Please model this.
Amino acid sequence: MLRVIVRRLLQLVVTLIALSALIFIWLRNLPGGPVDALLGERATPETRALLTKALGYDQPIMVQYAKFMQRVLTGDFGNSIRTGDAVTEVMGRAFPATIELALAAMIIAIGLGVPLGYLAARFRGRLLDNLSIAGTLLGISIPIFFLGYLLKDVFTQNIHWFPPSGRISTGVDNTNITGFFLLDSLLTREFDVTADALWHLILPAFTLATIPLAVIVRMTRASVLDVLNEDYVRTAEAKGLRHKTIRGRHVLRNALLPVVTTIGLQTGALLSGAVLTEKVYNWGGLGTLITDSISGGRDYPVLQALILLAALVFVVVNLLVDLSYAVIDPRVRVR
Amino acid sequence: MSDPITRPGVAAPRDGADPTGTSERPASATERGIGRLGDRKKARLDELARASADKGGVSLVRDAFRRLRRNPVAMFGAAIVAVFVLVAIFAPLLAPHDPAQRFDELTKNLTVDSIPGASSDFPLGSDPLGRDFLSRLIYGSRQTLFVGVFATLIGLALGALIGAVAGAFGGWVDNILMRLTDVMLALPALLLAISLVAMASRSSQWTVILAVAIVNVPIFARLLRGSMLAQRESDHVLAARALGVKQRSIVLRHMLPNAMTAVIVQATLTLSTAILEAASLSFLGLGDPDINRAEWGLMLGVDGVRYFEVRPELAYYPALAIIVVALGFTLLGEGMRDAIDPKNRR
Model:
């Protein structure tokens, strides 16, 4: 087991280094690279050359990359071109917002998706099954940002159940410790803030949850159907085990393995979806940061760090998923 | 079961435990007994071969196609796709107006908070620039198909090339190429597309198509490599190799065609995600900057969203079109996947 972990970690590091090198080299060789972004297109060649030298872009690319990596390892990703703030600081502000949104969406997707998929499989061919299949097909075919606008229109304009945008109402005095509004307000026992933050969270979280929800329902359904046909389930029934035991121990536990993989893979969809959802609800997380960094004249240091962070999160989550097999499935542990 | 071979006397039972004497076992292994048994078995085999040959050999693809046709859901998807393609082809005949023309009777009624609705000349009203919305929707099918098909084809071609080379050669070639796809897969799809478009100096229709295509390259590569590797180990490839077929034609004629089915299915599914991803890029302001071009993703992601509170129909119709078409490709693709799945063969 330990050997597997070490090997996977090494692979992960290699992947990330390769990715960082690719992004680094790419960014510096593009027309309209960082120098153009900083100076604008009307800069004179002299100022351009001056800045190129000042930023060290006249040095060989390998030297530049080595210096960049050196700084990255000390936690320095440079400064944002747009605002001048340190990239780590900008990201630190946005990161908790996205994680809060993504976690809430994942909780909704798993909490609804696994039971729904299971029920659909159990009542295969019945109304519930057909409805859930139709729903999941719709869920993967609808552009998520359009769904966001639709929900926003219905629930904030027509019936005023939820606030239209932001993470918290203006004027609410929240103490900021970690940046996770829910966690902070619970820690400081400002329960009115918790309620307000939760109220803001529900609509975006549901919007973002649709894609993983659809995939999880389908996966769970298919997986449960597979397991229900297994010999050991028939054996368990023949032994006269109670249905509750069969469903819990035999069916669900075996069926969940592929579902866990799916959940891991959905992290990617979640990160992608967060970019779109955050723009719809003006959420102020990493997604907002990405769109701002692009539309505000290509803020390369921020973009570079964001891409690397997204890759890191995605790869680490999938590693954790692989490792969690060992917990769920003893057969994997043996190997 | 009494035939001449096993009848007592012709071949005596080995022990007396078989009172009826109708044992199938060739008890005394005389040469003559084996010869006759062999003839008998040959005859039986010929008979079997004839019986099954009479039914007509059915190729895997034809068999899968027959199953696909019997699947009403897949056929529904196919019908949607067919209508979509037909509308795209005959757009100039179907559309009442030129999609790029701005009409005076529409522009004069345009204000910040009102966009003209339906009238007898313009069944779906105006777009934010005073153009006929219905015509733009109809012409939009062309560009949407164009973006979806090219993004998928380019992704497929590049991915198939990488996957086929990796799967055909194996070893270190395989290793290097797969690490490369790992790096690409380390980024979530839309983020990769965003970075690709963002890094281009100027966005155009082709940056969108290329970005969406490149996102799909590692998926196709992995898929084709997997089925190529499975083919490499299969008996028919071993047979071809034993017969001395050249490596090149083994790869091109024996392995690739068999491995392609899964890829074609994936391509159908990819058409739907490609259209959705292009729409997302438009929404993020990374889409095609040409304001004359009518494409559903662009219409939904730019104007539809911007004027959602003024005239939500500008979002509803392109969104509906995208949803229906994405659904069509998904249903067809999944039907195809079920059809080629050996588990569903009968």
The radius of gyration of chain B is 31 Å. Chain B touches chain A through 41 residues (CB under 8 Å). Residues 1-30 of chain B have pLDDT under 50 and may be disordered.
